[in-house]
Amino acid sequence: MQIKAPVRLDKKTKSLVNRLEAGDIAVIDHDDLDEVAANSLVNKKISAIINCGKSISGRYPNLGPGIICKANIPIFDVIKGDLFSILEEGNTIEIIDNEIFFEGRLISKIEFLSEDKVNELLMLAEENIEIELEKFIENTLVYANKEKDFILGNLKVPSIKTEIRGRHVLVVVRGQNYREDLSAILSYINEVNPILIGVDGGGDALLEFGLTPHIIVGDMDSVSDECLKKCNEIIVHAYPDGKAPGMDRVKSLGLEAVSFPAPGTSEDIAMLLSYDKGADLIVAVGTHSNMIDFLEKGRKGMASTFLVRMKVGSKLVDARGVNKLYKSSIKAKYIIWLVIAAFIPIIMIMLISNPIQNLFKLMIIRLRMIFGL
């Protein structure tokens, strides 16, 4: 295998994606490459991925490498060599088999992750899932006990301008299959006209469908400038101590925002905000709800999500996977019966209409004359 192309480097994959161009080689440092990151890389139509971390560490069966293999994009794990200290953005490198060359010299040894190799590593990770699950449950229970008072009773929710009381609220996270799920509920969105809350990149997910979010909630690390400028309100997820690093970005764009100090994830506080402001129904799309989801986000438990869903559960509808309920195909026999049904009234009219009967008689006489019958 031989690939020659310019490189783009970043230890944060979601930051790198915004700079990638078709044909680039992406250099990342991403242990257990997750599904969302993999899809974002695939969409950029890059020529290869070099991971300075372990694409599959064996902790759990992460989905990212399999997605990249199916897209026919070569993915390599670095065995030897510090690419981030050697290369700069835009440098052209050459991959020859399992080696990387820059300016004619060998700078790194790499391992190609074929589809068979990925499947082998995933099978080993499957054997570790029970151990990881036990750790995950223990961590969730420990932090749930610490955070229960803060989330269930003593959480100070900021005031907002958007009127939510009595309305449906759609909370969109750019998670697994968010496009398919949004497509499946577009008729609901058009009919009910819910308040639209984008959780970080979920705001851009709404823009993809021509929908402008009313509110953006998050730490502002994966939402576009365009989306922040178009939405009506911005709520920056802050740490429980009040520090909100994402606020600097909002202010740099000349925009206003309020902070929401809280533990847990940004999608958690989006649901808490909706519930506190009197939403009649909260519909969630693309949210994270299982162990693999949270491990892929780098979280070792889901205490806050567990508590939040207990609190808002009476008003929450999770639309994740709803697209699979509507997947159907029109069978050929149905089309045939539909065509037959459409011809029945036409045949009936032909049988009882004298003018049409006379027309057919004339046509038959004409055919007999043509063929000499």
Automatic annotation (TrEMBL):
Entry protein name: SteA-like C-terminal domain-containing protein
InterPro entries: Put_SteA-like, SteA-like_C
UniProt KW keywords: Membrane, Transmembrane, Transmembrane helix
Species this chain originates from: Alkaliphilus flagellatus
Transmembrane segments: 334-353
Entry keyword Coiled coil: no
Domain SteA-like C-terminal: 320-371
Signal sequence bounds: none
